[in-house]
Amino acid sequence: SLLFIKEKNGQLNQMDFIIQKTDTIWLRTQVNLPDSSDQNIEYTIIYNESIIDSGEIEISYVGIQNLYHLPIPFTQHKRGRYEIELSFLEDKQITSFSYGYKTKNYWTDDVDEVVGVMQYILPYSEYKKLRGKEDSKKWNTLNKYWKNKDPSPETPENELLIELNERVRFSNKNFSILMHGWRSDRGRIYIIYGEPHIVDESYQDNMGYHYQKWVYSNGKEFIFIDRTMSGDYTLYQERF
Q1: Could you read off the pLDDT of 80-96 as tens digits, one per residue?
Q2: Is-above-0.70 flag for pTM?
Q3: Which residues form the GWxTD domain (predicted)?
């Protein structure tokens, strides 16, 4: 599930953390209803390992994609880490977020998300060690890593870290369909290789599936397919 906040103009903006006061959090999720009748989804909000709120949300059948934006009441407004658990029949989904925090170095204050992105950058053994550390040690390791990678340490800006932030923000903004954009195949490729030189969206097969082809100036090509017809493209083929 993805987390959204509704702005004054009615637009839903995807967030990884919340710093403004709000009484409603919106979750975008996919639910497969057994039939076309209305159904209830149960939600539970957890803070500091304690349940602080729970309830039900009624949803109506919307079609093949089964994508819903669910309004979740949010009245706690205490700084910290939260989890929202959605339950429907045998299916459970958990979304985590932070409230009241904002880091100045990274696109999010969720250290686990920053560590998750690092799996695209670090050797697996180093990533595994980083993932197993306590949160404070994760931040220390991350900051030390990027400090050592700073191409111009005599300046206050770390150009490589700025580039990483821009790539992840772009991925989360443009590729978030059923998951955070950085987790998607397109997000992974974008974070690793950056903006493609050419994006070709002209091909559609006889099943109605749409394809995207990304071409890089060094000859790399990645082809993505939208099998669910929801805009959620997955990697189909890569050429080097």
Answers
A1: 889 999 998 778 889 88
A2: no
A3: 108-229
